[in-house]
Design goal:
- The structure is a single chain.
- The chain is an all-alpha fold.
- It has one domain.
- 68% of the residues lie in helices and 0% in strands.
- The protein contains 4 helices and no strands.
Length: 183
């Protein structure tokens, strides 16, 4: 029978693996959006030869950009890869660095929860109003709903990072820690 630490490691590994997979998915979507933009721009440039832009390209990019951002941020947060200003960070005592890390993780979770809640409200509103995009006539709520999946996963990831920073669980071996991250 395994120890509670084994369960903790399994959950941690699952959360890190899911976040990594989500970031790869976001990278795939971003590459597809970039390719779509290139094809549309080339088509627009060659309109004299019977080609043209991809209809609704900006609508697809707009919806996809939200999905990409929500896919990248959980992995970014787990890796302590957010942009930071480290002018004085290394001069702070360890206890202050730890306290600030816990506060930032708690604040990030609170902001993320607020964002997901409001995004859920917007999804339901757009669905209820039946608003569609101008060119493709695609329901606007689809983009919000697609972004909700990585956003909810992000809530779990941000909560896990807070639990880690509080010292209640350990990150998996090889994972970035606040002490080892570049600030």
């Amino acid at each position: 029978m395994g120890s509670p630490h084994d369960d903790e490691t399994t959950v941690s590994s699952f959360i890190y693996g899911l976040s990594r997979w989500l970031a790869w998915f976001g990278g795939f979507v971003l590459a597809a959006l970039a390719l779509l933009s290139v094809v549309s721009i080339v088509g627009r440039a060659l309109s004299g030869y019977g080609l043209g832009p991809v209809p609704g390209d900006f609508e697809l990019v707009e919806a996809g950009a939200g999905l990409v951002v929500f896919s990248f941020l959980p992995w970014c947060h787990l890796r302590y890869a957010h942009a930071t200003v480290d002018l004085l960070w290394n001069s702070y005592p360890r206890w202050l660095q730890h306290t600030m890390t816990v506060l930032v993780d708690a604040l990030m979770l609170a902001v993320w929860l607020l964002l997901v809640w409001r995004m859920g409200v917007a999804t339901l509103d757009y669905h209820g109003y039946g608003e569609v995009s101008f060119i493709l006539q695609m329901p606007v709520w689809w983009g919000y709903a697609a972004s909700m999946v990585p956003a909810v996963i992000g809530c779990v990831v941000y909560a896990w990072r807070l639990v880690e920073s509080l010292g209640l669980v350990a990150p998996p071996k090889g994972a970035a820690t606040a002490a080892g991250a570049m600030h």
